[in-house]
Amino acid sequence: MKKIKIIFSFFNEEEIIDELIKRVVNVLEKLKSYDYELIFVNDCSTDNSIEKIKKNLFTKKIKIINMKQNEGRDECVIVGFKNSSGDLISYFDADLQDPPELLNEMIKLYESNNSEDTVIHSIRKKREGEHILKVMSTRLAYKIINLLSVIDLPEECGDFKLFTRNALKKCLIFDISEMTYLRGLPFYFGYNQHFVYYNRKPRYVGPSKFPVFLSTGPIKNFSKAIYSFTNVPKYLKVIFVTLNVLLISVLLNGFFNLLNINTLFLTIFITIYSIILFLNYLLFKKKKFKKIF
């Protein structure tokens, strides 16, 4: 019997935990030829998420890993990877925007493909309930990443993936650092890759943990993609990022002018994000990923 491990990085998801486990288990229990385990990586939650997980009926099928400090989604997922030993490993967000039922289609693709060096990706056809600025900025980021990097990252390819053990093992051989762009690794190594398509739903309940503004997460991920997979010398990468920020500022300037928004706000906004980008470069360019569990 093959084993499948599902990894969730989460932060303050007490309103969703029960529904998430219920839907995931409902899918996995029907896979008679697979045993399963759910790995929850807690990114320093301050609510009752952990208590809810421990009280769940399926707690014997659950492993909890607590981070020592808030690190972000990718870092939590990598810790989950290093603590999983299944034949198949999947990860996706805990907010139920990515439907767990998609696992059925992914596993069928794996079985029909019959290769142990396979990665199956999810592609979002629609992103329901998301702010238009977030959708626009994400699409622009994909285009810039593909322009500057050695990988070809399909637009709207998300964080819901299924790895075979061999494919994941090869990804983890890579020099993982805190500036590694997790989403791009499979495309860098060029595995047997397949895609499933779906409509991404709005968050199941409660506010998003990844707001459009006032969050360094999107900028950090964009920085990771630029630093990880460009073949430009490292000392030039910050120049490329700065040029990217200038390009984005021009586009946003036109967009904000249409909305009659004061350009002073735009200038402050771009300046703050530019500083964040530069600080990311200084903080992470030499910093290796460390085990923190």
Strand order of the largest sheet: 3-2-1-4-6-5-7
**Secondary structural class:** alpha/beta
Report on the biggest sheet: 7 strands, mixed
**Helicity level, as a percent range?**
40-55%
Could you give the distance between the termini?
Answer: 29 Å
How many beta-strand elements? Answer: 7
- SSE series: EHEHEHEHEHEHHEHHH
- Number of helices, counting only DSSP H or I runs of 4 residues or more: 10
- What value does the average pLDDT take? 79
Q: Give unreliable regions as ranges.
A: 283-293
Quick description:
With 293 residues, this protein is of the alpha/beta class. The protein is built from ten helices and seven strands. Strands 3-2-1-4-6-5-7 form a seven-stranded mixed beta sheet, with helices on both faces.
Question: What does this protein structure show overall?
Answer:
There is one protein chain. The longest helix is centred in the C-terminal third of the chain and has 25 residues. α2 links the parallel β2 and β3. α8 packs across α10 and α9 packs antiparallel against α10. The chain is an alpha/beta fold and 293 residues long. It is globular, with a radius of gyration of 19 Å. Helix content is 45%, strand content 18%.
List the topology elements.
Elements: E1 2-10, H1 17-28, E2 34-42, H2 49-55, E3 62-66, H3 73-82, E4 88-91, H4 102-113, E5 118-127, H5 132-148, E6 157-164, H6 165-173, H7 185-189, E7 192-200, H8 217-229, H9 234-258, H10 263-284
Parallel strand pairs: 1-2, 1-4, 2-3, 5-7
Antiparallel strand pairs: 4-6, 5-6
